[in-house]
Amino acid sequence: MSSSEQSIKDYLPILCMGGLILIVQVLALFLSRPMEVNNMQAFEDPTQVSNSIYYIGMILAFTLFVLIAIKKNIKWVISLSIYLAIISTLYYVFFALFTLFPPLSRFAAIASVLISTGTTILLYKYPEWYVIDLVGVCIAGGVSALIGISLSVIPVVVLLVLLAIYDAISVYKTKHMITMAEGIMDLKLPILFVIPKHSKYSFLKESFKEGEKREAFFMGLGDAVMPTLLVVSASVFMQSNGWISYPVLGAMIGTLAGHAVLSILVMRGKPQAGLPFLNSGVILGFFIGVLLSGASIM
Questions:
Q1: Which residue among 4, 96, 142, 297 is the one 20 to 30 A from 190 at the CA level?
Q2: pTM to 2 decimals?
Q3: What is the per-residue DSSP string for 195-262?
Q4: Which of the 8 DSSP states describes residue 169?
Q5: Nearest to 55 by CA among 138, 146, 130
């Protein structure tokens, strides 16, 4: 194999990861409108910065819950919690999609329950990498849309800055995020994206034993969700003359730029906290878009 072919093979998974992030962002933008129309917002006042603190508190509480469950060896509790979260998120996604078609809207609730339940059972029974990626796109897009329509731009920026700092501390200093990730990966829970390094790869056969060479690239859904919050929020809370504004476009491009820098460092063999790069990229891209458009974020 020539060096150019090897280079393409090495960087193709990174391009695929970037493509998945972009798909999540487009899906979240698409879902945000029907979710907003159906009043799926989590907060009555999306401009309150205290909402961001609330989300940080929830993340810290869940992290503590997972770490305790791993230490006590009651990992089935983690699995149950995550599958309940998956089926709930899928319900909102399918419900929002059904409401786009008036003849089907009256069946939206029951159809969404059936489809989200069936999809979650499929995910549990056959968690192959392409099933995980397909459902992961739906989950990430749905969560991004739900939270993005619930927080205006300033609270989202505050949330992203706090999460970037927390991610850096938890990976580089306390390292508890690495412990949590290893514990969850061992359960093979479908809360990540999987990009195989070769065509014969099977996630079902992945062992995750320490020291073994990984046959695929992995990225947590949170790395796609968090920057997408700003993309959705900018689309919902900032006026635009077209389908997509400069701030939204800038945020999307900034996310991909942050992903590219992160991927280059990861390719060098050093584990990295993703959110400092991704969140910095989306925030920087967003503000460049704001400057180009002359829009106000208040």
A1: 96
A2: 0.89
A3: EESSTT--GGG----TTPPPSEEEEEHHHHHHHHHHHHHHHHHS--SSSS-HHHHHHHHHHHHHHHHH
A4: I
A5: 146
Contact indicator for 99, 111 with CB cutoff of 8 Å:
no
Residues pairing with 193 in the sheet: 219
Radius of gyration of the chain (CA): 19
What residue type is 147 in one-letter code?
A: I
pLDDT tens digits for range 152-207: 999 999 999 999 998 888 878 877 676 676 666 666 677 888 888 877 888 888 77
Amino acid at 176: H
List, for residues 118-135, the tens digit of each pLDDT value.
999 998 888 888 999 999
Confidence of residue 211 (pLDDT cuts 50, 70, 90): low
Distance CA 150, CA 159 (A): 12
Beta strands, E only, 20-119: none
Asked if residue 260 lies in contact with residue 270, where contact means CB atoms within 8 angstroms, the answer is no
For 215, phi then psi, to 5°, come to -100, 10
Task: Tell me if 190 sits within 8 A of 136, measured CB to CB.
Answer: yes
